[in-house]
Every structure is written in C-alpha cells, then in structure tokens.
Amino acid sequence: MMEQNLNTTENTQKPQGFFQSNTAKIIMVGLLTLILLIPLQFVKSLIFERSQRQKEVVEEINQKWGGSVSFYGPILKVPYTIYDETRVENEKTKQVTYERTPYTEYAYFFPDELKSNIDVDVDSDSKKRSIYKSVVYTSKLNFKGNYSLPDFSSKKIDAQNINWDQATILIRTTNIKGIQGGVHIKVGDKTLTFEPTAQLSTASNTSDLETSPMDIRELFKDEKTVFNFDIEYHGSENISIVPIGKQTEATMNSNWHSPSFKGNFLPKTGTVEGQSFPAHWSISYLNRPFTQQYFGTLPNLSDYTFETGFIIPVDEYQQSERAAKYGFLVIGLTFLVFFLIQTISKVSIHIFQYGMIGLALIMFYTLLISITEHSSFMLGYVIAAVAVVVMIGLYSLSILKNAKFPLFIAISLSALYSFIYVIIQLEDYALLVGSIGLFLILGAIMYFSRKIDWNNSTAQTANA
C-alpha cells in the first residue's frame, strides 16, 4: 500500500514535456501573432486601395467642376523696341557700316497698391460620386489698386522706343475653365475685357489672360491711375494668390469650418461662430524676394503666394489607416490577456482557438472601413468595436466556462479600443498619451503575472 502511494506521488510529480510548458505555449502564441500580421497587411492594402480610388474620383470631379485656383495680376505690360547692331564690312572698299535690326521686348510693371476681397462659398454637401465626395467652392474675387507711370530709366531706354499705345494688362491664372462669365477691368475711366492668349505661360498649367492694346499716356494724366475688376471661379481644394502689389492687402471670408493656411505668408484670423474666418493678409514688397518690374520676361512667381486650402482635414481612410497601424498591438495584448487567464485559471485554450480570436480582431478593420464609407468614422468605429467585443466575449464564454473571465476580457478589449480611438483623434498629444497608456498597460501585465511560476506548466501561487 505504501509502495502504491509512493508510485502515485512520483507519477503526479513527473514533469510534463516541453510542448506542455508555459514557454512552449507562449512561443506558439507569439508565432501565431506574427502569422496574423499577413492578413492584417492585406487589410492595410485594402485601405490604401480604397483611398487611392477616392483620390482618383476626387480628381475626376475636380477636373469637371474646376481645379485649384492660382492667380497673380493685374500686371501692366508695355512693349518697347531694342536694336541689334550687326557690323558689315565691304570687301572692296573696306568700308564698315552697322545695320540695326529692331526687336520688340516687353516690360512688366506691378501695381503700387493691390487690395483684394475674396468670398469663398464652399458647397456644404460637396460633390459626390457613389460613396466618394470632393470639396468644391464658388469664389468671387475683387481686386482694386493703382499704378504709377512706368519708369524705364533703369534700362536707359529712350522714350521714343517705348510703344505707349500698345500697352496691355495681363493676369496669369490656373483653372481658366472654372472662370464664370466674362472678366472686365476698369482702368481710370476706360473699361477693358480680358481674352485668353494662344501661348501657354512658362508656369506649369498656368495661362495668360490679356486685354486689347491701349494708350496708357491718356490714362496716366494723374500721378496714380486706379483699377478695379472682379473674377469668379468654380474651384476646388485651394486658392493661392501672389502678392504683387508694393503693398498688398487681402481679406478672405468663407463658410468652411477648417481651412488650411499655407504658402509663404500666414494671415491674421478672427473667429466667427467657431470658424477660422475672416482671414487678413498685409504684405509689403520688402517681405518678398522679387521686384516691382521686369524687363524681357516675366518670371514664374507661383512659389511666393499666400494660400488657403479647402479640403477634408482627415478623411475616414486616413483614420482607418492609423487604426490599422495599432493592429499588432491589439492582437498581441489580447493574446497576452488570454494567455494569462489560461495560465492562472488552468483552463486549456487550443492554438486554433487563439487563431479564431485573432481573425475576429482583424475583421474589426474590414468592418471599420466598410461602415465608415457609408457613415462617419466614429459611428463605424463604435459598431465595429462592439461587434468584435461581443463576438470574442461570447466565444471566450464557451471556452472558459465561467462568466468572470469573459467579462474581464470584454472590458479589457473595450478599454483598448477606446484608448486607440483617443490616440487617433489626438494630434499634438498623441505620442504623449500613447506612451503613458502603454506604460500603464505594461505595469498591469507585470502586476497580474507576478505570481506565475514560469518553470512549471501551471500557475503557482506564492506562499503568503
């Protein structure tokens, strides 16, 4: 009898094989986590593909409605004549003569004062195609200011070589297909109409509109000559303007809730009913790296603008992509929670069951992107998170045969998804909040795993 009891004790204390140990189980769970990164990468590729499709549709909508608007003008363009002298020697008489060949060049003069008032009405419903949408607007731009009489003294050009009666006014802009109606400018007491020129300007996708010739000597009887004109666009995405005035003042009003002010010059903004408008710019010629007049050619000045963007700040695809980047963290922490529960409760969880739980976690992201395409990101996130938490909670209830641990798992998953949602919504403090949250999660794991004897296949509670 004594020998039988001894044999029973020896059998009970007989160590189990390596594959039944905690070390082997955690290695298998870790390998499964790495394997699940493959379908998670497929989900990220799906999000990227849908995002690219949205960009293609947005570009197509913008091309038909009107693209972004870039504008600078009005510029006074005055032709003048220069002569190219060629030395000609007579071979017989050795007499040298000079032949003068006339060429026409152009001088470009910017306004002394340029004031603009810009009203932008963004379509609140936006333009849609299927599930995709683009932010479009109708803008009304008013420009007024004055010119001084052009000064050619810096180039030492004789007054008789200046073609005063062939002067024109030029504006350079993109999105000419988005211009609504005619464009007329009043200079002094004379009204002129802009017409498109046949030649594309040196700036990419930029065209010139020019008036018919006029004699500016009749207009510059006073020291200053004023001008005034309006132009209306159907456009999308942004408006950029080059401050060509010696002193440029601009005011913009819009109904868009989240403008993006870009370019070389930032505005002073006032808050009206929670919106970042009106915006005001005041720019001196001392603030920009170009002069008030050019001879020969007009350079591309599109890099020296003040600009306002009218776009959706963070769309659902960007937010879904950010959420998917935390997929590894969600899978890893969820598996770790199940492993700790398995070790503490001595309930065996098969690797296949871990796999089913991991696939359910990945399904969260496909649900998220598919729902947010037809609703808001917040609603899609809540629905997808609730669906996954309920599914895993019920599945873990059938595995663990106890309501206490499945409830703990459901609460942990809900807290994890809430934590990730907060990080996605934050911008300036995302790294800080994420770091603090991960630190607290690590502390909780260390606390709950402190009594596990990793040398045995089952958890051992430390002696009091």
What kind of sheet is the major sheet? 16 strands, mixed
Query: Count of helical segments?
Result: 9
From the helix content, strand content and strand pairing, which structural class follows? alpha+beta
- The CATH architecture category of the largest domain equals Sandwich
**CATH class assignment of the largest domain:** Mainly Beta
Mean pLDDT: 80
- Relative helix content: 25-40%
N to C succession of SSEs: HHEEEEEEEEEEEHEEEEEEEHHHHHH
User: Termini distance?
Assistant: 34 Å
Uncertain spans, ≥5 residues at pLDDT below 50? Answer: 1-14, 457-464
> What is the molecular shape?
elongated
Strand content: 25-35%
The CATH topology of the largest domain corresponds to Immunoglobulin-like
Radius of gyration over C-alpha positions, nearest whole angstrom = 36 Å
| SS elements, strand count | 18
In short:
The protein is built from nine helices and 18 strands. With 464 residues, it is an alpha+beta fold.
Give keywords.
transmembrane helix; 2 domains; 464 residues; Inner membrane protein CreD; membrane; disordered C terminus; Immunoglobulin-like; two-stranded antiparallel sheet; 16-stranded mixed beta sheet; alpha+beta; Uncharacterised_IM_CreD; 9 helices; elongated
